[in-house]
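May I ask for whichever protein you like with its backbone structure tokens?
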Amino acid sequence: MSIRKTDSWIIIAVRVNPEAAEAVSAFLLEATPAGIEQVDTSHPAPPPDLKNDQVEIRAYFPPGSDTAAQIEALLNFCRRAAARVPGFACDPPRTIPLVPEDWADGWRKHFKPVRVGRFFIHPGWIQPGENESHPVRIDPSLAFGTGLHPTTQLCLKAMDGLMPAESFLDVGTGSGILALAAARCGVSRVVALDNDPEACRVARENLDKNGMRGKVQIIEGEVSRATGSFALIAANILSSTLIPMAAGLVERLSPGGVLLLSGLLNEEVEEVVAAYQAAGCRCTATLEDGEWSLVRLTT
């Protein structure tokens, strides 16, 4: 999808208490292809009227989206959740127009480089030092995967100890950050997969920005479109998506290969591991960062 400078994206912003944040975030993640952002008072630029016991969840929708229908669906979800979740509280949602370039430029003040193991994740306006052997340039954009989120850092940390692998599949590639990190490690066959055309477009742009055109194959679609098997697979997506794709992911794993599953809340690990054990895997390790987890599995 090509976005003109004059195109206005729309943010649906809703303030909730911590008890409601997980459920509302999951609902909005399913509703938008562009991702969400959680803002609390520890954010670099929180709204001045945001309370200490509130989280503002911002969902990004591309031009032309029926945001009125999305808000109605969100309100219905919140009403149902409030009836069954103790302490659930949600303010009325609101919409905010957003031009993508304004969003990216605003983040320049707050976006900092991230080093995870050998990987140095940096925006284009901050250049890596001469001693950085594995730099990956990722500029803030409307695609998930800047390196700031704990789930992405868990993936990079786990990958750091497994590289170089013979082959690598990045499922739900978003910005392409994990695929680019694998290519930086010299993996000869790297495939990045996403069913969102906007994510694939951004990932291709990031290949060019990193001088990695031809080093990563980008595929738009489901796991079945990635042919062959892979020594290492990473999937940093929601548990609600990971569970039904268990058989398909395990089918793509080489004998003795490693599967990294991230994007999991700590309390979701047991259910996800059970689904992949049923598909023929065993869990060999779990990494945690706050409320988020990554599980490492093998056949």
Q: What stands out?
A: The mean pLDDT is 86.
